[in-house]
Amino acid sequence: MKNYFKAMMMASLGSVIGASVTLADSCDVSASGTYGFISNSTPLFVDFGKELKANCDVDVQWKALVENQAPTLEGLSVPKSPFAGVVLSNDQFGKYNAQGLLRPLDDLLKKYRSQYSFLTDNMLIKVDGKVYAIAFKSNLQHLIYRKDLFQKYGIEEPQTFDEVLEAAKKLKGKSDVDYAFGAAFKSGWNLATEFTNLYLSTGDEFFKKGFQPNLYRNKNASRALKTLKKLYGYSSPNSLALASGDVTALFQSGQIGIMQIWATRASATEDPKLSKVIGNVEMASAVKLSANDPYTASALWWDGFAIPKTTTNDTETTFKLFMELLDKETVSQSSDKAVWLSPYYKATQYSKGVTKTIANQVRVFPSEPQFAILHSALGKYLPDYLHGSRTLTQTFKRIETEYKKVAKEKGFL
């Protein structure tokens, strides 16, 4: 699946390379009952829920949650799912599909695909020949910085995190910025993902043969975590409580000089209603951990639609509602909120960070089921090292102990 996704991304971006979403006025989907959906909380997904409810003759209840993974899994696992459909990232898809929680979409595609010419083959996520999800946008994290501050203090655009730290050192203590650096360091999923990005840059793997973890006494893991702690030192003292939306808000208010953030947040940095730094924002590539590392410190993601295997809603109606969110009008009017995997997508200034990062080489976020266990352990214990209650060696040892315990329970070890 990793190679397939990278090929999908490159084909999509190579072929095509704000404001509220407005669906086509011709939404003719009508159904009784309530159709529940769940997704992560991004500006685009919030708009999805509002616009389906406003334009289609269906009672749509869309939950766009910052912490959506636990309620999504719960809703997929019960005998009668409360959700008609779900929006999943590639790491969620790998976990949930391996557990048999998603419904194949082949029958719906066979019946309706001819009506939706925008559904290209590279959007269809297949496992063992069956389609289980429809990917509609890509995402990754990259650098965004204040170009006015870089010009004022003679800072060049960084190519590595060593250079980011040099830039942060120049910005620290300046009166026109509160925090030199910012990223989603919130304890748990966010912090684990930031570490994952840094480690992926080295080209190393998270596991040895037999699903044994590969972090304890690993020089690449140590380099990644030491860099994470240095970056944390240039960030808000409240960083372990800040998710992506919080960091973006600090950048909008002029309090952060450099941030690593999701591409879906890029346009918000110059939101005319919220931003105080309009005209001074530069979209940059994700950078490498250091000059000798092979990849940028980021990861390719996709977001896609899927249908729970145990849904009680009419799946044809659900499929049609999904398609309303992929039509030409929606994609065209929300091109600043996503890098769409669609023939209708036209790249904007806010997608520059994505295209630059892909050109500079980026790996796909790990989607193996056992990685979810390690990722959870990382999010749980990395804060111990950042605030000094455990040494680096003790932290990795604790993470691997936690992973092995759960992996044995799940049958991976």
Write structural notes for this entry.
Strands 1, 2, 3, 4, 5, 10, 11 and 12 form an 8-stranded mixed beta sheet that branches. A 4-stranded mixed beta sheet has the order 7-8-6-9. Helix 8 (189-201) packs across helix 9 (219-233), helix 8 (189-201) crosses helix 14 and helix 14 packs antiparallel against helix 15 (392-410). It has helices spanning 2-16, 43-55, 69-77, 90-98, 106-112, 147-152, 161-171, 189-201, 219-233, 244-252, 315-324, 328-333, 352-359, 369-386, 392-410, and strands at 30-40, 57-65, 85-89, 124-127, 130-139, 141-146, 179-183, 256-262, 281-283, 299-306, 339-340, 363-364. The protein is α/β, with parallel strands linked by helices. Strand 1 (30-40), helix 2 (43-55) and strand 2 (57-65) form a beta-alpha-beta unit.
Report a brief summary of the structure.
This protein is an alpha/beta fold. The chain has 15 helices and twelve strands.
Strand tally is 12
- What is the H/E string? HEHEHEHHEEEHHEHHHEEEHHEHEHH
Radius of gyration: 21 Å
Write down the overall geometry: globular
Helix content: 40-55%
Mean pLDDT: 92
Tally of alpha and pi helices: 15
Structural class: alpha/beta
Percent strand equals 15-25%
- Could you give a short account of the major beta sheet? 8 strands, mixed
Task: Report low-confidence residues grouped into runs of 5 or more.
Answer: 10-20
> In angstroms, what separates the terminal alpha carbons?
23 Å
